[in-house]
Amino acid sequence: MDNRFSSILKRSLRVTADYITAFIFFCVLSASVFSLAKGETTVFIPWISFATFLILFYLVYVDMRNIGFKENRPQYNLNPSRFKGLLYGAIGVLPILIVQLAVLAANVPEGYDGLKRRIFQLVSGPLYWIAKILGNEAWHYCATLVSIVLMALLGYLAGHSKFYLTTWLKTVLGTKKDSKA
Asked: CB within 8 A of 40, min separation 6: which ones?
């Protein structure tokens, strides 16, 4: 563990890799919905997007929690800020933002604006449900990338402060077994 830019970039690209993984899940699930429910795809796609968003949240959160936990160890002598997850998330989102802006800036012939919108929605797959809630405009898809940065921040904060979400949920919900029994 070190603080070189190449190391920071490598850890940040885990966020991009997690997004690509969730994107592949979205594509596979969408293809199955397109083949099974030919006329009702507009109903199911936001739900599939939400499910892949949860997968994305899990992947980013766990990766950033592990990085935060490792960087906070005293033997590495890094003394990281607890908000370093913002940096990792922002750098990790840049490739996704560049692809979205390239699709947005692409010139299409008259009559193919619907196709351009569908490609833009596909690229934003796991975040589609958030953009639909916000208003389904082109800039809403770029604004939804903030949620990925927040996932990275929360995961890194959890690792930095040794907070485990599942343990906390079990305690709050009362499902944690007593160690006395």
From this structure: none
Count other Cβ atoms within 10 Å, centred on residue 114.
9
Distance CA 65, CA 161 (A): 9
Q: In angstroms, rounded to a whole number, what is the distance separating the alpha carbons of residues 67 and 72?
A: 8
Which distant-in-sequence residues (6+ apart) come within 8 Å of 176 by Cβ?
167, 170
Residues 160 and 68: beta-carbon distance below 8 Å? yes
Residue 58, pLDDT > 70, answer yes
Q: At what angle do helices 5-36 and 41-71 cross, to 10 degrees?
A: 160
Backbone dihedral angles phi then psi of residue 20, each to the nearest 5 degrees: -65, -40
The pLDDT of residue 180: 57
Q: Is the pLDDT of residue 181 over 50?
A: no
